[in-house]
Amino acid sequence: MKAGDVMKAGDVLPPLEIPVTRTLIVAGAVASRDYQDVHHDAEAAREKGSPDIFMNILTTNGLVGRYVTDHFGPRAVLRRVAIRLGAPNRPGDTLTLTGTVTEVTDGPDGTATALVRVTGANGLGRHVTGTVTVEVSR
């Protein structure tokens, strides 16, 4: 497999819109064993200065990974996910993920590896920015 058979630098991934629900925020925190009260207790979040609960970084990390692997298919393997958070994701918002392939290399074993620049925005602004390294085999 040549990298160009699967992907090339400049390829744009279609956007993915994810409704940010209270259930998604709480379930993501529980699944990642993040029991910080600001991810499940609205009153505690307000006491700490936030108008409501907000998503944790591990849930965002998982959603970014899902976005990339959904695009490249079942043969895609995430090799690295490096993200930085910005505006919080709160219930009632929509997270829109977008991505662009910035670099592609052929591996010696018939794989292709891509670097994908990902951003995610919500009603407050940019929620997440980062890069994902994904390997795709034949």
Strand order of the largest sheet: 1-3-4-5-2
Largest sheet: 5 strands, antiparallel
Helix content: 25-40%
Q: What shape does the CA trace take?
A: elongated
Distance between the termini: 6 Å
Report the order of strands and helices.
HEHHHEEEE
Structural class: alpha+beta
Q: What would you report as the Rg, rounded to the nearest angstrom?
A: 17 Å
Averaged pLDDT: 94
Number of helices: 4
Contiguous uncertain segments of 5+ residues: none
Strand fraction: 35-45%
- β-strand number: 5
Write a concise synopsis of the structure shown.
By secondary structure, the chain is of the alpha+beta class. The chain is 26% helix and 41% strand.
Topology (elements, then pairings):
Elements: H1 3-6, E1 12-20, H2 22-31, H3 42-47, H4 57-72, E2 76-85, E3 93-106, E4 112-122, E5 125-136
Antiparallel strand pairs: 1-3, 2-5, 3-4, 4-5
